[in-house]
Amino acid sequence: MGVNRLNGNGIVSTGGVIMAPDNTGVPLLVNPDYLYNNFRTYQIKVIDASYNPNQFVDYQTFQQRQYYGNFVSLRTQFVNYDYNELHILNAVHFNIDIATYPTRNQLYTLYPPALFQQYVRMLGINQNDYIVVYSRDTLGGMRYAAAVWELFRIYNHTRISVLNGGLNAWRSAGYETTANIKWLQFNQMVDAIFKKLIW
């Protein structure tokens, strides 16, 4: 099994370990060895998509508390204790309940691109970053990771892959985890990433 790198053009070289690449040149799935070999290049941002559906706030409460687009308050409301207790080193937590909002008829409504962009900036995600997302839930840690993968692609950020097997696969491979929470400053993300938004 070869060592895998990002080449000089920012395109992923597979090295024989990537499954089901799509036509963007970015793999749909990566394994723990691939992530370990690449994420220290700082060209990869790792997202923990662990989710607790019991924290859901109904749309009336959401409106009363003026949560719409108030990502600082939402991060206080939706704390993921699984992430806080254990996650991949340097991973940031992405919460679907913060990245979307509830309405009367829909639990997860998409924000306009500019507001989604604000939340992504809070996580330290830049326009050209290659993202690997994982979770720790059922279906091999793939359920919520796949939802976050799809959400980023809706907003036209296609440089994103899912860690096959999630956190359990990472730990089984013997790679490092931590309880240290990574707090990030706002980054400058170019608006062009969202110009081709697909609704």
TrEMBL record:
Annotated Gene3D superfamilies: Rhodanese-like domain (3.40.250.10)
Highest taxon above the source species: Eukaryota
Xref: InterPro entries: Rhodanese-like_dom, Rhodanese-like_dom_sf, TST/MPST-like
The keyword Cytoplasm appears for this protein: no
Residue ranges constituting the Rhodanese domain according to the UniProt record: 81-179
GO cellular component, one term: mitochondrion
Molecular function terms, GO-annotated: thiosulfate-cyanide sulfurtransferase activity
SUPFAM superfamilies found in the cross-reference section: Rhodanese/Cell cycle control phosphatase
CDD domains (alphabetical): TST_Repeat_1
Record key words, sorted: Repeat, Transferase
PROSITE patterns on file: RHODANESE_3
Pfam families referenced in this protein's UniProt entry, alphabetically: Rhodanese
SMART domains linked: RHOD (SM00450)
Listed name of the protein: Rhodanese domain-containing protein
Lineage start: Eukaryota, Metazoa, Ecdysozoa, Nematoda, Chromadorea
